[in-house]
Design a protein that fits this description.
The chain has 158 residues and is of the alpha+beta class. Helix content is 45%, strand content 11%. It has two domains: 57 residues, Arc Repressor Mutant, subunit A, CATH 1.10.10; 82 residues, 3-Layer(aba) Sandwich (Glutaredoxin). A four-stranded mixed sheet has the order 2-1-3-4, covered by helices on one side.
Length: 158
């Protein structure tokens, strides 16, 4: 399904569930992201139209909260912490290794859509530095070679 071929009918049950409830914008956005994996522009417009609120308000909420994504993400999401402890313990070299191995810049997704790489600035696990999270699984005291192997295995297994 290309960027232009978004099946908006998938939103029908969401609107049936929430109807015209006041304050339903965030749960509707959450459901939409669950359906599409991100919030395509066509879906944001549909939500604005159905809720009879300005598109700018829908967009404002979607961009305010970090849980929402306006661009398609990979099947696997890698977050690498680059807070102070992790930075000192080697995150920059991990970022370089991921960049070289998977041909993806931080904040980007591989061309095949398999991996999205995000740099975050604290995962709250400083004692385990450097820390990364792959598909919600925390990895502590990460070492470059094992890290790259783990990512490759996860991608190959899906």
């Amino acid at each position: 399904m290309s960027h232009h071929d978004i099946d908006l009918s998938l939103m029908t049950p969401v609107f049936e569930e929430y109807g015209a409830q006041k304050g339903a914008l965030i749960p509707i956005l959450q459901k939409a992201q669950g359906i599409y994996g991100y919030l395509p522009p066509q879906v944001l417009k549909l939500i604005a139209d159905r809720l009879r609120i300005p598109l700018s308000k829908v967009y404002g909420v979607a961009t305010f909260y970090s849980q929402f994504y306006l661009e398609r993400r990979g099947r696997h999401v890698l977050q690498m912490c680059d807070g102070t402890a992790c930075h000192v313990k080697g995150t920059p070299s991990l970022i370089d290794a991921v960049r070289r191995e998977f041909h993806v810049e931080p904040g980007g997704t591989t061309e095949d859509g398999e991996l999205t790489v995000e740099v975050v600035y604290c995962l709250g696990s400083c004692a385990l530095a450097p820390v990364a999270v792959l598909d919600g699984q925390v990895m502590g005291r990460v070492r470059k070679d094992r890290f790259i192997r783990t990512i490759k295995k996860r991608i190959a297994a899906s």
